[in-house]
Design a protein that fits this description.
The chain is mainly α. The protein is built from ten helices and two strands, in the order H-H-H-E-H-H-H-H-H-E-H-H. A two-stranded antiparallel ribbon has the order 1-2.
Length: about 290
């Protein structure tokens, strides 16, 4: 495993976390000061790009370096993992929705299938661009730096997931479409945010294990892009309708308990596979 001097790494991790966890709140303050309408939000842009700008400074000028960033896609070596990354969200959504239909909690609205497909296709490129910034921050920068401290991988995944979740909080307060929240849970925004915590911790296991298996940030970009473009649109376009009060259990995407359980199981399976692979190849290259 790549290791670095713990003192500057800890210092830079503290700086990174402080900046990125302030980004959304600073962005909201900027929008309030400029009186920007939601469709012209500089604050939302600041929230998205400030983590990447911060890691560029830390890796270029503050000693973090770029050796462990995971720039190289490794297309040939990682081809199975790219395929898996493209399939995880569609298949997890099908599993969750299948369970929801079986429990009579979910209705699939076939009449808007074309609307959903059109919206998902239109979202692919914007989602890809957005997730370059997001995954460069979390799986490109934060994950390898956390693991370089020698923490158990499981704890490292949860730590990255907790920061990832906390970074989202101002977005959920100030920028998310409230109709999406209402479609997801009839409960308060606080309950929505708690469900998101459970789901992002579970998702961080999957993202983190794929990062360790591939030594590249790009499978995570693909994974995140497919999830945002395809699965999130299921609720937005009302391609699926969930029984009143039950979205917390059976909604697709990172919005429900069933999704959290699916991602937890997948993350643990990937971890077991990686550990078996390392045991068989003790000289395998670390992250």
């Amino acid at each position: 495993m790549h290791t670095s001097s713990p003192r500057p790494t800890l210092r830079n991790l503290a700086i990174f976390c402080l900046v990125v966890l302030s980004a959304g709140w600073l962005g909201y303050g900027l929008d309030q000061a400029l009186q920007n309408p939601p469709d012209q939000s500089l604050g939302l842009l600041l929230w998205l790009v400030l983590p990447t700008l911060t890691l560029i400074v830390l890796r270029t000028f503050a000693g973090d370096g770029w050796q462990d960033f995971g720039w190289w896609p490794g297309w040939a070596r990682n081809a199975p993992w790219y395929l898996l990354s493209a399939l995880i969200y569609p298949h997890s959504a099908l599993l969750v929705l299948g369970l929801g239909v079986a429990l009579e909690l979910v209705t699939v609205n076939g009449a808007v299938t074309i609307v959903w497909a059109t919206a998902a296709g239109a979202a692919l490129i914007p989602s890809f661009i957005k997730n370059i910034f997001e995954e460069f921050a979390w799986r490109g920068h934060l994950a390898p730096k956390v693991h370089s401290l020698g923490l158990p991988e499981f704890a490292g995944h949860l730590l990255v997931g907790a920061v990832w979740w906390a970074w989202h909080i101002p977005y959920w307060f100030f920028y998310i479409d409230r109709t999406l929240v209402q479609a997801t849970t009839p409960a308060s925004l606080a309950v929505f945010i708690f469900i998101a915590l459970v789901n992002l911790l579970a998702a961080s296991l999957v993202y983190g294990e794929i990062r360790l298996l591939t030594h590249s940030v790009w499978p995570a970009v693909l994974l995140h892009t497919v999830g945002n473009a395809l699965v999130d649109q299921l609720v937005v376009t009302q391609a699926v309708e969930i029984a009143s009060g039950m979205a917390w259990l059976a909604a697709p995407g990172h919005l429900s308990v069933l999704t959290a359980l699916v991602f937890t199981a997948l993350g643990l399976a990937l971890r077991a596979y990686r550990r078996r692979s390392l045991a068989a190849q003790p000289a395998a290259r670390a992250i």
